[in-house]
Amino acid sequence: MTTTIRGGQLARLLGQWHSLPGRHRSPDYAALAGAVRGLLADGRLPLGVRMPAERELAEALAVSRTTVSAAYRTLRESGHLTSRRGAGSWTTLPNGHRVAPSGLWAAGDDHDMIDLGVAASAAPAELVTAAHDAASDLPRYLGSAGYHPTGLGELREAVAAGYSERGVPTTAEQILITGGTQQALDLVLRLSVPAGSPVLVEAPTYPNALAALSARRARLSTHGLDTATGWDGEMLLGALRQTRPRVSYVIPEFHNPTSHLMAADLRERLVATAHATGTELIVDESFVDLPLDDQEMPPPVAVFDRHSRVVSIGGMSKAYWGGLRIGWVRASAPLVQRLAAIRVGVDMASPVLEQLVAVRLMHQATQIVKARREELRQQRDALVTALRTALPEWSFVLPAGGVCLWAELDGPISSALSRAAEDVGVRLAPGPRFGLDGTLERFLRLPFTLPAEDLIEAVRRIATVRHDLDHATAPSWRSPTVIA
Q: CA 383 to CA 191: how far, in whole Å?
């Protein structure tokens, strides 16, 4: 069944679509078409959605129907809209586009693109040796069918040992191995979030978590993070008490995208409040291995759990490599078995060989993670220096860990800047990707996972198009590629 977006809904997503300096000198229909293309490119407007009728959208935007009609015609000509007389218009993308790592859409030929949309690093040098050595471990498993829904015992033990070392006594029976952290989240949501359930999330938050929650048809409410200080404890706990959600999804370790680290006392109060409100906490620990300034890490949220209210998820994508699709869930043993039963209906089990590679890498965790931290520290410092030199009007807090910087811009231009940056070979993740209903236009996530020279060049190009946004008299609108 085709989903229809109403005029008022699209108007909220479009936001200030014709408010940039200089844009009043370009036709409104071109600005509107470009804004819709931007929504399609960064995933806020899905493919295959029936657009509102021209008259309905014109009323919602307080513009003439002629403007909307011309914008729709422009979108049809660029391949972003398909129309059939008497049936309406649907969102599409031009030929030659492909699915990007984020699940969104990008042009097929983007080899020269500096991609700041994906916050993940290249593989460590040890991966090839680990894969070679893991092949020698494979014969031990070849006599079985190869299906291990909860994961290989030796990998579960290695993950459990990591939790125990962090102060959370954990057995292998409390670990479920998954195909990455995203699948870990998806499985927990399948079990814990029936359609229509209330769920509390941070704002901003991880875009693919929002996508997974939308797929469950959750009723989302948010609590905001302060750009400078992170969580406001009273606001967070007050939101829990007021909304009494079934589930709350939080990223306490170097939050994505702000990189804030939640204090220990708030973690303890969060668990106690969740117990009082009957809320299950899903704690995403994707970045826990990546403190960059030798700071003391607070205890895991699960340390304070006495009533099985905390489900922790994590994986190897950030500290090791995203191409190694290994994630996990830490929960009570009975809950792990229920998740495994659900998992059988999804993909049966994770590949045995990949799990054996993961075991080998974990045996070298000390040296691999230490090298990753040093690499990220140098790249972070290069990015910060470049931003302070080329874009001094932008503000941000120096990230103490994780892989990204959350910049506050000098105007609500994040989406427009991202579209313009594509023209100079830089892919960005605009702020609205990390929130609901087109908010966060003053913010931009900038990961520092690429080599320093690429980050410096990317900032130089971004600064150029930022200047052009203020001075261009006739912006050119083209088919944008994906913002991941």
A: 41
Alpha carbon distance 329, 314 (integer Å) = 7
What is the rounded distance in angstroms from the CA atom of residue 464 to the CA atom of residue 340? 51
pLDDT digits (tens, 9 = 90+) for 45-74: 777 888 899 899 999 888 999 998 998 998
Q: Do residues 474 and 25 make contact, with C-beta atoms less than 8 angstroms apart?
A: yes
Residue 473: exposure state from Cβ atoms within 10 A (0-12, 13-18, ≥19) = exposed
Residues 6+ apart with CB under 8 A from 311: 188, 192, 280, 281, 282, 283, 329, 330, 331, 335
For tokens 């931290």, the residue is 373
The answer to whether the CB of 226 falls within 8 A of the CB of 377 is no
- Within its chain, how far is the Cα of 468 from the centroid? 29
Number of Cβ atoms within 10 Å of the Cβ of 190: 17
Nearest to 288 by CA among 257, 308, 318: 318
Residue 265 tokens, joined:
């006392």
Per-residue H/E/C for 253-279: CCCCCCCCCCCHHHHHHHHHHHHHHCC
Alpha carbons 81 and 74: distance in angstroms, whole number: 9
292-348 pLDDT, tens per residue? 998 899 999 999 999 889 999 999 999 999 999 999 999 999 999 999 999 999 999
* Average pLDDT estimate for 157-186: 97
